[in-house]
Amino acid sequence: MGLYAVLFVSLLSLLLGFVHNTTSTSSCRCFPGDLCWPTPEDWDAFNSTLGGKLVATIPIASVCHYDNFEAYDEEACAALRDIWFFPETHIVWPSSIMAPFFTNNSCNPFLPANVSCTLGNYVSYSVNASDAEDYQKTMHFTRRHNIRLVVKNTGHDYNGKSTGAGAVSIWTHNMKDIEMQTYSSSYYNGKAVKMGAGVEVHELYEFADAHDVIAVGGNCPSVGVVGGYTQGGGHGPLASKFGLGSDQVLEWEVVTAAGNILTASPNEHADLYWALCGGGGGTYAAVVSLTAKVHPALTVSAANMSFPNTGDNADQFWEVVGTFHASLPDMVDAGVSVIWLTTPDGFTLMPATAPDLTKAEIDDLMAPTLDKLEEYEIQYTYFSDEFPTYLDSYHAVNTPWNVSDHQLGGRFIPRTLIDDNNESFLATVRNMVDGGALFSGVAFNVTDAVPSPDTVAAHPLWRESIMHAVVGTGYSYTDEQINIEEQLTITNELLPQLEALTPGGGAYLNEGDWRQPNFKEVFYGSHYDSLNAIKARYDPEDRFYALTGVGSDRWAQREDGRLCRV
Ligand SMILES: Cc1cc2nc3c(=O)[nH]c(=O)nc-3n(C[C@H](O)[C@H](O)[C@H](O)COP(=O)(O)OP(=O)(O)OC[C@H]3O[C@@H](n4cnc5c(N)ncnc54)[C@H](O)[C@@H]3O)c2cc1C
Ligand SMILES: *[C@@H]1O[C@H](CO)[C@@H](O)[C@H](O)[C@H]1NC(C)=O
Ligand SMILES: *[C@@H]1O[C@H](CO)[C@@H](O)[C@H](O)[C@H]1NC(C)=O
Ligand SMILES: *[C@@H]1O[C@H](CO)[C@@H](O)[C@H](O)[C@H]1NC(C)=O
Ligand SMILES: *[C@@H]1O[C@H](CO)[C@@H](O)[C@H](O)[C@H]1NC(C)=O
Ligand SMILES: *[C@@H]1O[C@H](CO)[C@@H](O)[C@H](O)[C@H]1NC(C)=O
Ligand SMILES: *[C@@H]1O[C@H](CO)[C@@H](O)[C@H](O)[C@H]1NC(C)=O
Ligand SMILES: *[C@@H]1O[C@H](CO)[C@@H](O)[C@H](O)[C@H]1NC(C)=O
Ligand SMILES: *[C@@H]1O[C@H](CO)[C@@H](O)[C@H](O)[C@H]1NC(C)=O
Question: How far is the CA of 156 from the centre of ligand 1 (A)?
Fold first, then answer.
């Protein structure tokens, strides 16, 4: 090729690149490699304004691969493999997330070392945030350069909402401030806890215990209270007694997409306050802190139980499970919250938490199930006790939670289904589990925790439900094809069985199928349109995007990860 030809081709590609770039700024987020992508000098300047808190992504498993990051270290990789399933491993790594599907298997310790380690779906940069100003600077920079914005707290989100290719993430994990307050307002007078965006469930429980109060959080100790949990609704061991996480909120301190610091409460920016109380994480604004009600300390009883399905006793096994299901209305009405797992191998109650009840009372509520086990002479373990504090109970019976190596889908189960048609519910669970799926349930009564189902944005069907049912299938760290098939099994085979029992029903947006058809109705119910209008008010440019979040249907992620308007 002659010199002119080379020049011509270069010019042409420059022009094409420019055209492409223009298109991408109007309809797509700017992506690494685009002309619009900030220069190294831009990133350095951004880092300086942040006082050095900008972290360029190195995938957590780069030590397990030869190429790209020059980090290969066989010993470090083996050590990482050993701790991979502990949430803490990923929580402290700025870009790491736990929902395996959304890591796209682009770099993990179970793949051979000679497979490429790439960023895949991981963010490009994280801002190790410590205050509202760090949020504001990140908002301004990402907006000016049209870069995708993500908020990551712990990275627990099952739908991959805390990651995104080509994104800059506000990483909130290190914002651990927590304090007691005596809150006074027209809507609440009493004790409250104000906590920073990075506070985890166990930290809140420990802090509350040290101050002789009880705070509401989830089952898993390392879920972030202020992030996806409370913003998504939030169930837990105290739900039947005190309601959902979203029902405890007094005020939010946020930074909006435009970079303004606001307080959202029932009296100020009440629409935003409402949306953040259960309308989904990473969608309306970036939360700096949450102030939540706390409750006077109580004694707490708790019970756990397990019994096997050996195959030989299958009919009797399922009858016991049916008896357990039928006992749930009495349990939740007595203030008990219940979490359990039914697998092809057996049943595990993990646990039932009974605030303000005695051991004798929880034993009574468990008696129908225990009597059936005795009657059928099925071997089982049962443990119950009364504890002086909620924290003691939590420490004694909460099961350790690993990173989920499953994919999942979910469905709310209305109280009426268990009251009127427990047989068909049982038959459906049995059919799914016999087919190899995992079934996990959480049972609660949160009907009277709020004056009306519309008091907060959390799906109104929480208030009519006795249970959130979750179904799980397997995940492979080495074979993407299996993962796609297993996830389709959830969408096309498992959830339709629960949907058939619950027409017009819903699901918990934090523990649902990311491919859920009609996600607007299923995850948000009658609140969707109001939530969408509130998002338009506070985030008119859709700076916040989260898969299955409100407004997310206006965007699609392309094969290479680029986020574009549809
Ligand atoms: C093992 C395990 C156990 C669980 N147990 C429970 C349970 O008992 N009860 C329950 O209700 N749920 C439970 N969940 C679901 C959990 O509530 C969700 O995964 C939730 O999204 C986690 O929130 P996070 O902030 O910790 O995680 P992240 O993945 O970091 O964030 C989740 C979402 O919230 C957004 N977000 C985070 N921080 C902020 C912020 N400061 N401002 C704005 N947006 C933010 C993120 O952008 C993302 O969209 C569990 C999940 C797992 C994996
Ligand atoms: C930001 O600055 C800090 C401190 O100077 C440095 O350690 C870090 O590597 C920088 N980040 C990036 C992405 O350059
Ligand atoms: C939990 O994770 C740890 C660390 O990866 C692992 O050793 C352990 O086997 C896991 N436990 C279960 C029940 O999966
Ligand atoms: C990696 O190594 C294995 C065996 O050592 C080989 O079979 C495979 O082809 C290699 N893969 C790549 C991507 O080089
Ligand atoms: C995820 O993996 C698929 C299959 O390997 C690939 O085609 C796709 O580009 C990847 N996505 C990202 C964002 O890396
Ligand atoms: C993030 O900032 C905290 C201080 O807030 C610091 O202790 C920690 O080392 C930083 N982490 C990374 C990965 O930069
Ligand atoms: C389940 O429902 C059936 C039919 O409505 C009823 O006869 C039975 O008593 C219920 N089971 C239990 C354990 O309550
Ligand atoms: C129940 O809790 C007790 C007390 O902590 C514990 O020893 C036991 O292993 C637990 N059993 C189950 C089935 O979780
Ligand atoms: C919750 O309890 C109240 C009062 O006991 C009852 O009226 C309501 O039906 C229960 N709701 C659910 C969903 O179990």
Answer: 5
Q: Give dist(CA 31, CA 47) in Å, integer.
A: 19
- Model-wide pTM > 0.90: yes
Instruction: Map out the domains of the chain as residue ranges.
Output: 9-171, 178-297, 300-524
What pLDDT, on the 0 to 100 scale, is given for residue 10? 44
The highest-level CATH class for domain 178-297 is alpha beta
Separation CA 208–CA 180 (nearest Å): 8
Signed CA dihedral, 197, 224, 465, 511: sign only: positive
Assigned CATH class of 300-524: alpha beta
Please, which residues have CB within 8 angstroms of residue 200's CB and are 6 or more apart in sequence?
Answer: 91, 154, 221, 222, 223, 224, 225
Tens digits of residue pLDDT in 485-495:
999 999 999 99
Hey, is 545 helix, strand or coil? coil
198: left (phi over 0), alpha (psi -120 to 50) or beta: alpha
Mutate to test the pocket of ligand 1, among 102, 195, 261, 510 (most ligand atoms within 8 A of CB): 510
Whether 383 is in the pocket of ligand 8, judged by its Cβ within 6 Å, is yes
422-449: burial string, b at 16+ Cβ within 10 Å, e else: beebbebbbebbeeebbbbbbbbbbbeb
Q: Identify which ligand lies nearest to the alpha carbon of 341.
A: 8
88 token code pair: 């803490």
Give tens-digit pLDDT for 131-187. 999 999 999 999 999 999 999 999 999 999 999 999 999 999 999 999 999 999 999
Ligand 1: residue of 156, 240, 412, 468 to mutate (most ligand atoms within 8 A of CB) is 156
- Average pLDDT (459-479) is 96
Q: Take atom 5 of ligand 9 and give the residue whose Cα is closest.
A: 333
Residues 208-264 have pLDDT tens digits of 999 999 999 999 999 999 999 999 999 999 999 999 999 999 999 999 999 999 999
